[in-house]
Write a structure and sequence with these properties.
By secondary structure, this protein is of the alpha+beta class. It has one domain (about 10-245): L-fuculose-1-phosphate Aldolase. The chain is built from 7 helices and 7 strands, in the order αβββαβαβαββααα. The chain has helices at about 10-30, 90-100, 115-120, 150-160, 180-205, 210-225, 235-245; strands spanning about 40-45, 50-55, 70, 105-110, 140, 165-170, 175-180. Strands 3-2-1-4-7-6-5 form a 7-stranded mixed beta sheet, with helices on both faces. Helix 1 (about 10-30) crosses helix 7, helix 3 crosses helix 5 (about 180-205) and helix 5 (about 180-205) crosses helix 7. The longest helix is centred in the last third of the chain and has 23 residues, at about 180-205. It is globular. Bound molecules: zinc ion. Zinc ion (ZN) binds near residues 172 and 173.
Length: about 250
């Protein structure tokens, strides 16, 4: 028998996490990176051992607010009352990474056109330009095994990921993990841009080429661009101001 859940007693840390994640969903909607009512961005609730926030299933990203995000445990069970279901099949992959990788606090998964296109190309993602050079040697791949992961696929996902925190799910989409939400957002932003540029470049119909020295120099410079813990903060704040100018209802 299901136990009745109490209305959530929300800490300041949880409230801040809710606002940050709701803003992120609205930013993704603004950028056209949402997919009907599907896909996920999940965020660990600070200061709690086993609590995560995720989008209410059946709502579009543009309908997500700080208060309608659903608080769940690692198995996708609701921790607080919510009229919305959770797409547990979609969360199962996120939960695997949240469970096994303590440094992973935020996970973004999308089915964007550019991401899915790159995920379906034999050569995969290539370092061909300013943005994609940022990701040289940092991307893991996992072969397509179907819609939902089976228990034995979990071990293969973790093995394929290794020490990387960006994964291209072949024939499926992009997966980005971060120590913070702004860091994951920034990584995702440039990855998505790189995928879109790479598709456009391929449409030119000529072979792709980038000198190894350029990639190496870019990698070196990127690593010094922002101190640890600060990555993505200014970019995420700028995008939050932008969505605030459109519609502040995400703060509800
Ligand atoms: Zn997916």
């Amino acid at each position: 028998m299901a136990t009745a859940l109490k209305p959530a007693a929300i800490t300041t840390a949880e409230r801040q996490a809710r606002e940050q994640l709701a803003a992120c969903y609205r930013i993704f909607a603004h950028l056209g990176w949402d997919e009907l009512i599907y896909n996920h961005i999940s965020l660990r609730v600070p200061g709690e051992d086993n609590a995560f926030l995720i989008n209410p299933f059946t709502l579009m990203y543009e309908e997500v607010t700080a208060s309608n995000l659903v608080k769940i445990d690692i198995d996708g069970n609701k921790l607080a009352e919510s009229p919305y279901p959770v797409n547990r099949a979609g969360f199962v992959q996120h939960s695997l990474f949240h469970r096994l990788l303590p440094d992973v606090h935020c996970i973004i998964h999308t089915h964007t056109t550019a991401g899915m296109a790159i995920a379906s190309i034999e050569e995969g993602f290539q370092a061909t330009d300013f943005y994609s050079s940022m990701f040289a040697g940092q991307i893991a791949y996992h072969d397509f095994e179907g819609v939902t992961i089976h228990p034995e696929e979990g071990a293969r996902l973790i093995a394929d990921l290794g020490d990387k925190r960006i994964m291209i799910l072949r024939n499926h989409g992009l997966l980005v993990m971060g120590k913070t939400l702004p860091e994951a957002f920034q990584t995702y932003f440039f990855l998505e841009r790189a995928c879109a540029i790479q598709i456009a470049t391929r449409q030119a119909g000529t072979p792709l080429r980038v000198p190894d020295a350029v990639v190496a120099a870019h990698q070196r410079d990127v690593l010094t661009a922002a101190p640890e813990g600060m990555r993505g903060l200014a970019e995420f704040a700028a995008m939050t101001r932008l969505i605030d100018r459109k519609d502040k209802s995400w703060r509800d």
